[in-house]
Design a protein that fits this description.
The chain is of the alpha/beta class. The protein is built from eleven helices and 17 strands. It has helices at about 50-55, 130-135, 185, 190-200, 220-230, 245-250, 265-270, 285-290, 315-320, 330-345, 360-365, and strands at about 10-15, 25-30, 40-50, 95-100, 115, 120, 145, 165-170, 175, 210-215, 235-240, 255-260, 275-280, 295-300, 325, 350-355, 375-380. The strands form four sheets. Strands 3, 4, 5, 8, 9, 16 and 17 form a seven-stranded mixed β-sheet that branches. A six-stranded parallel β-sheet has the order 12-11-10-13-14-15. The radius of gyration is 21 Å and the shape is globular.
Length: about 375
């Protein structure tokens, strides 16, 4: 199948922090220049991730754009981006679609392939100079890592996300999607899924392991699903109330701890878990209590990213030789492993689909805490945005 010519890139753009309140605007933009290693993707699905919300409101730091104050509430922009002085942002890094154009150096993707893109779109890939890229840990590269949105490529061009019709991404970070996984299910795996899967695997989650998952939300529900798929002996969901206990058990949890309903929760369940995956980014987390749940030499791995500092009494680590660590997405190889496991074990995240034209409604509802448990935007063919 022949590659298609250069598409017109259009998407939901943020011109102001007010965009997070449902004021994204549909407009054209100019992506990075097409290179021999690039793949152009016609997007069919894009998950809505908590990272999108943090970025829109500059919660993790300044967003890579020059925001302006919106002068009206319109959600439509008929003029191309070049007519504006502003430099907006387009979020979305849980992308699934079909390759429509491939560079002449691309070997692993063909036009027509169903592919996905996660939160990273590039790294330096200089294996002789970069220890991380040389060891297959491109997600920790510091020499040339580029986020799928809100990032800058080496040539100075910016990266644009998946709330859009098309994406342009270097082949190294474009992944073949196995048969047997629906696109709406695989989209949120591209960030939420890999963020939970990687630390579980790297910390030995599997038969004989007793694992706790803090937070039953978009990330936490992936923690439960993958801990079950990996064959963990026990999977304990940890939440403030019992509101999500039934859902957790349907996902595969074998136990449930409600920290807000039982003042003795830490003592009752002390030294019962080998590994805890904390998916919550609240800076007021009771980390000391969570550490008390670990067995001797157990590990607590943090993947939820807070908008602020977190305090911790280190005696919780010293008293049982516990380990506290963190994890960020996963490497390309881990992404492929996760997708293969999801296909073999038929991992199905709980998703709710929205037409791409309703992106503003989706982010507002996301902020209100309504997802059960991931939102996915769907590009309907030939729909008028």
């Amino acid at each position: 199948m022949a590659s298609l010519p250069e598409p017109t890139f259009t998407g939901w753009l943020a011109y102001s922090p007010e965009a997070v309140k449902g004021q994204l605007q549909w407009a054209t933009y100019v992506p990075k220049s097409f290179t021999p290693t690039d793949v152009d993707i016609e997007i069919t699905h894009c998950g809505v991730c908590g990272s999108d919300i943090h970025t829109l409101r500059s919660g993790w730091g300044p967003t890579n754009c020059n925001y302006r104050t919106l002068s009206n509430s319109s959600n439509r922009v008929s003029r191309p981006l070049a007519d504006f002085d502003e430099d907006p942002a387009c979020v979305g890094h849980e992308i699934v679609g079909y390759a429509i154009r491939v560079g002449y150096s691309v070997t692993g993707v063909r036009v027509g392939d169903r592919v996905g893109v996660g939160a990273q779109s590039n790294s330096c890939l200089e294996k002789d100079k970069c220890e991380e890229c040389g060891n297959g840990r491109e997600n920790y590269c510091t020499r040339g890592s580029v986020a799928t949105y809100n990032g800058k490529y080496k040539d100075g061009s910016k990266s644009w996300g998946g709330y859009a019709r098309f994406a342009r991404v270097p082949e190294h970070f474009v992944f073949q999607i196995p048969d047997g996984i629906e696109s709406a299910h695989v989209a949120p795996m591209m960030c939420g899924g890999i963020t939970a899967y990687t630390p579980l695997v790297e910390n030995g989650a599997g038969p004989g392991m007793k694992v706790g998952i803090v937070g039953v939300g978009g990330l936490g529900h992936f923690g439960i699903l993958f801990a079950k798929a990996l064959g963990c002996e026990e999977v304990v969901a940890i939440s403030r109330s019992r509101n999500k206990e039934k859902d957790s058990r349907r996902m595969g949890a074998t136990g449930f701890i409600a920290t807000g309903d039982d003042t003795r929760w830490a003592r009752k369940h002390a030294r019962s878990l080998d590994l805890i995956l904390c998916t919550v980014g609240d800076k007021n987390l009771p980390l000391g209590g969570y550490l008390g749940l670990l067995k001797v030499k157990g590990s607590l791995i943090q993947v939820g990213a807070p908008e602020g500092k977190v305090s911790l009494n280190l005696w919780g680590l010293l008293g049982k030789a516990a380990r506290l660590g963190g994890s960020s997405i996963g490497s390309p190889e881990q992404m492929r492993e996760m997708l293969d496991l999801a296909a073999r074990k038929r991992v199905k995240p709980w998703v709710q689909e929205f037409p791409m034209k309703e992106a503003n409604r989706a982010i507002v509802e996301f902020e209100e805490g309504k997802p059960r448990y991931r939102y996915v935007l769907v590009n309907e063919q030939k729909e008028k945005l």
